[in-house]
Design a protein that fits this description.
Blueprint (H helix, E strand, L loop, with lengths): L21 H20 L4 H24 L1 H10 L14 H15 L2 H25 L3 E3 L2 E2 H21 L5 H19 L6 H19 L4
Length: 220
């Protein structure tokens, strides 16, 4: 009897990095926004949140490891999660564990308000920059990065900082200047992933830059 190959041809239904992949971007923004909303709405403790996310990170890495080790599990997971997965993730770790790790490290390393803002950069600037880069990007300045995508990242991070500052009762010229510079911090953190997953690098690099910026223009 001929043996039936149980492997799934992932290339037939999964998106590539160069695709717009709108569902993945919407899911990225929705889950991150929900997490930030719950943090404030339920007045959660930063340390408790960090510990819970650390446990989620470990679970996410373990699930991904098991998925890659067992082809049947991998096929099932990739098929069920196909609206949110890339073709490259069929044979490598997905973005989820790095997303959880990036958020966990940001909360652990930085002051609460800086950490939340760096997480907002991850939640919104990454998918928005990718969207504009794929749809309108003409001038490539780095591998997988375009000038148009970088501009979108800058504008997004600028407005996120401005609105977040206003929501905390911060106003005046210092907030305006801080937001202009924070936009550059966010843009650079999105542009220079240095070969690592940007779900990890964006909140950590952005949090470092925002912490340094807050020393010179203290608004948080």
């Amino acid at each position: 009897m001929e043996r039936v190959n149980s492997e799934v041809s992932f290339d037939s239904y999964l998106k590539k990095r160069s695709d717009i992949h709108l569902m993945r971007k919407l899911w990225h923004m929705f889950t991150g926004s929900l997490g930030v909303f719950c943090f404030y709405f339920f007045d959660l403790d930063k340390n408790s949140m960090t510990f819970s996310l650390a446990k989620l990170t470990v679970v996410a890495f373990l699930v991904d490891y098991m998925r890659l080790k067992f082809s049947g599990m991998n096929s099932s997971v990739m098929y069920l999660m196909k609206p949110f997965m890339r073709d490259s993730e069929a044979k490598s770790l997905s973005g989820l564990p790095f997303y959880a790790l990036g958020v966990t490290l940001s909360l652990f390393l930085f002051e609460e308000k800086v950490a939340i803002l760096s997480i907002l950069f991850l939640v919104f600037s990454d998918p928005i920059a990718s969207f504009f880069g794929v749809l309108f990007g003409k001038q490539k300045i780095l591998p997988n990065k375009t000038f148009e995508g970088c501009v979108a990242a800058y504008v997004t991070c600028y407005f996120l900082t401005l609105l977040y500052g206003l929501s905390l009762g911060v106003n005046g010229f210092n907030l305006f200047i801080f937001s202009l510079l924070a936009g550059a911090v966010g843009m650079l953190s999105e542009a220079f992933s240095m070969g690592l997953d940007d779900n990890l690098t964006i909140p950590v690099v952005a949090g470092s830059g925002l912490s340094l910026l807050n020393l010179f223009i203290p608004i948080f």
